[in-house]
Structure prediction request, 140 residues.
Amino acid sequence: MQPANQDVDFCLVCEDIRPELGNKVNIFGYYGVLPRVRIILEMGDRPIERLTFLVSTHVLTKPYLAQLILVNPNGTPLINSITVTGDPVTDNVSTSAIAFAFPMLRFQQQGEHRVQVLIDSQLAYDESFLVQSPRPAVRL
Prediction:
């Protein structure tokens, strides 16, 4: 469910990114764009080596503070990023993007997780993604 504040255009989920010349980034291990992301845990007890969330904005005309929070299916925080300063957008064709990378991320629960992005301490984005094991759980 997206908040009324539309400061965030999208959030792309991948393993990693690498900045390139010419205002580009290379994307590695693409999972998708929220909310259409499903992460399959091959080994449920092993952490994901690196999980990166690329958050894009286009309407923020002054420097801003951004933070990303991952929330477990039961509503408890999984991890909070550090707060970073984003660059303002000074024209109507550019975007500002921030990559939030979490090395050795261990999911504590399977199911629907939430990605929340705070812009200047206000909730600006709230979307979900799925974390699942490769085989269905057996219920007795």
Residues 8-132 form a domain with the Immunoglobulin-like fold (CATH 2.60.40.1930). The radius of gyration is 16 Å.
